[in-house]
């Protein structure tokens, strides 16, 4: 197949076997089902809340009332 790696190459090949673990190869999506949908939904919520606050929240100049003495 290829030339022999020698003791140093064999050492590093064994140390890199974790990179071939199924959890790290395109399977990470399956480990966190629904995470992508949740992130999108939360982002839409944040944008909607910011838009609502900008459109419908009372401005600070109108909500401030002067103190009245009784």
Automatic annotation (TrEMBL):
The chain crosses the membrane at residues 28-48. Accessory subunit of the mitochondrial membrane respiratory chain NADH dehydrogenase (Complex I), that is believed not to be involved in catalysis. Complex I functions in the transfer of electrons from NADH to the respiratory chain. The immediate electron acceptor for the enzyme is believed to be ubiquinone. It comes from Vitis vinifera (Grape). The lineage of its organism: Eukaryota, Viridiplantae, Streptophyta, Embryophyta, Tracheophyta. Belongs to the complex I NDUFB3 subunit family. One of its GO terms (biological process) is electron transport chain. GO terms for cellular component: mitochondrial inner membrane. Keywords: Electron transport, Membrane, Mitochondrion, Mitochondrion inner membrane, Respiratory chain, Transmembrane, Transmembrane helix, Transport, Ubiquinone. It holds the Pfam family NDUF_B12. It is a single-pass membrane protein. This is NADH dehydrogenase [ubiquinone] 1 beta subcomplex subunit 3-B. It is found in: Mitochondrion inner membrane. The gene is VvCHDp000657_1.
